Amino acid sequence: MEFTRVSNLDFEISRVTLGTWAIGGWMWGGTNEEQAVDTVLEALRKGITTIDTAPVYGFGKSEELVGRAVQEFGDRENIQIATKAGLEWDEDENIIRNSTPERILKEIEDSLERLQTNYIDIYQIHWPDLKTNFSETAAVLKELYESGKIRAIGVSNFSPEQMDEFRNTAPIHVCQPPYNLFEREIESDLVPYCKENDISLLTYGALCRGMLSGKMDEDYTFEEGDQRKDQDPKFQGDDFRKYLEAVDKLEEYAALNFDKKVIHLAVRWILDKGIDSAIWGARKPEQVTFNQVFGWEISKEQINEIEEIVEGTVESHSRPEYMAPPE
Question: Any idea what the Cα angle at residue 129 is, between residues 155 and 165, rounded to 5°?
């Protein structure tokens, strides 16, 4: 396992973070709770120390399952929990952005209870709330940081301009945008901004919702309620076939050059592009095979070859904007 320090703070995170959106069940066709807890435990046993979750992942379910697993595993002081705030939902699962101080102060208490802990290592605003002044949101996170309830302040899905406005009131230690071989938009602005301002990059979607797992083909069956079935354009029609063709070529390249699988190539590529930690989503213990990401590197020349494979195969470059809640 590799580790990296968070911004200029006094703690580290693992360079692969366990992502727990899917174990919450929402938008993933439900969940098997015991299997979900076992998945978190398997990751911790294999050396992952950082777990990313959010209240909206299953409307509290993901946080509850992470809390159960961490309690069972123990060693809380050496585990980093990253969760989020700033989304509100009703009984019909309609979601809106709400980063008012009142909402955040309620959310953190709910999250602490579900996670069975008295502090959160990385607390992130899930999506920018354009109806709430960023200075108000930043001020309440700064208070939580100074009181010790959170160890680092983070934002997710923010632009550099939005982070500038936020940082007028409070520091940002962590930024969480989407990033993978098929979704590279952050390279032009967000990555250089975070490097320049000493903000750690904890990127989500490393496997592009499973596309880069190497486990899919054109006949793959999605469960009812799985957002990939009818919402994600990458998994539809000709685009799906093109992406799968690229995955096949990457699988061949990984085997020939590194004796690895495409899933490990996809995550190693992220790390060797200079990202601090890549979020690896899993919902079954057997999916936790991240150890094969470590002990080898991809050269700059090989990175270029890998990117040329993608650019020469995939014509569509849709972003994961369908996941964004209403502004």
Answer: 60
Q: Alpha-carbon distance 231 to 162, whole Å?
A: 27
* Angle at 227 (CA atoms; ends 132, 31), nearest 5 degrees: 100
Could you tell me the two tokens for 9?
A: 């703070």
> Nearest-5° angle of CA 121, CA 154, CA 5?
60
The answer to pTM > 0.85 is yes
Residue 57 annotated to the active site: yes
Name which of 112, 104, 110 is nearest 138 in CA terms: 104
Domain residue ranges in the chain: 3-211+262-295
On whether the CB atoms of residues 251 and 56 are closer than 8 A, the answer is no
Got the DSSP string for 271-320? HHTT-SEEEEE-SSGGG--GGGGSS----HHHHHHHHHHHHTT------G
Active-site residue, selected from the candidate residues 57, 123, 204, 243: 57
CATH number assigned to the domain covering 3-211+262-295: 3.20.20.100
Model confidence over 156-200: pLDDT tens digits?
A: 999 999 999 999 999 999 999 999 999 999 999 999 999 999 999
